[in-house]
Amino acid sequence: MEKIDYRDFDRDIWEKELEDFVPAVVYDMHTHMWSEAHKGTLTGPPTGLRWEIDYQDHLAWAAKLYPGREMHYLVLGTPMPGMDAEGHNDWMAAEMAADPQSEVNMMVTPEMTPDHVAAQVKRHDFFGLKPYRTFAPDPANARIQDFLPESFIEVAHDMGLAITMHLAKKTGPADPENIADLQYYTKQYPRAQWILAHCARAFNAFMMEEAIHILKEMPNIWYDTSAVNDIYSHFLLMKHEDRKRVMFGSDNIVAGCARGKYITYGRAWEYYGGFPDLPHCDPTPTFVIYEQLRQERQVADMLELTSDEIEDHFSGNAIRFIKQVRAGRD
Questions:
Q1: CA Rg value for the chain
Q2: Element (H, E) at 317
Q3: Could you read off the pLDDT of 88-107 as tens digits, one per residue?
Q4: How do residues 53-95 score in pLDDT, each as one tens digit?
Q5: Distance linking the first and last C-alpha atoms of the chain
Q6: What are the helix (H) ranges across 97-216?
Q7: Which terminus of the chain is more exposed, N or C, with fewer CB under 10 A?
Q8: Taking the model in full, what pTM does it have?
Q9: Contacts of 231 (CB under 8 A, 6+ apart)
Q10: Are the CB atoms for 81 and 131 separated by under 8 Å?
């Protein structure tokens, strides 16, 4: 983990703003791992998502980010078109066997067959599926079926699996086709459980303002909060949803541990690394995950969340969700 860069500045933010907020046990329901051994046909230097990190690296990094906390994970495949998906899935399953309380979602691509997906889930006892929009012909404007074939959702229904879904389209959960698809799939395949990543991908709160009142009425919808730095997105979710359906996630390491913040403007959002020099204040950026935790702490204060609700958000909801999904397979 030569890329770890934890500074006194970060420690000061943790100690003054976050240490009294983050509970003793954390289930991170949105993390990624990667090994260059499974780069497949990818070429060039390992940049971007190709940051090598295994389970022990995650624990070492978490010991810096959240000192003294007990950590468990839902590990998601890292989506890289051209990757050796089968080797990557095998490796993740082997890595996470070290922690029986953690889970792994299988990386799935549209080229796979439903029989292959089902066989791999059985082989490794995967918790669920991880599709991603980069495998669609048009990643920015894809419907769910463009990167998650309906036959895979049927497999999830038959086997009682979770699906971690990063919605596509420019308005994410506000897009009428995304809403219509989720309404159809949750009704047609009631044993599939949907985790809508990144607060349903509402990185900008305008996407959530109307959508939350539709999503909250759907069955089998859950959320992780990973990498969202818009305070009102967190507020809308925690105010209007059943809080037991909202689970902490970080998107560590590559996104969550980038220095800077995901900013919003107009109807857009984008990663921002900060100004290098500001004469009127300290321009040093901290981690995206610390910015996220700051928003979550502020929302907890605004909504007067109880200590039990905060503990549920960081671990209790995930524990119950995992038990529910596992019990549904028996």
A1: 19
A2: helix 317-327
A3: 999 999 999 999 999 999 99
A4: 999 999 999 999 999 999 999 999 999 999 999 999 999 999 9
A5: 39
A6: 114-124, 144-147, 150-159, 176-188, 197-201, 212-215
A7: C
A8: 0.97
A9: 295, 298, 299
A10: no
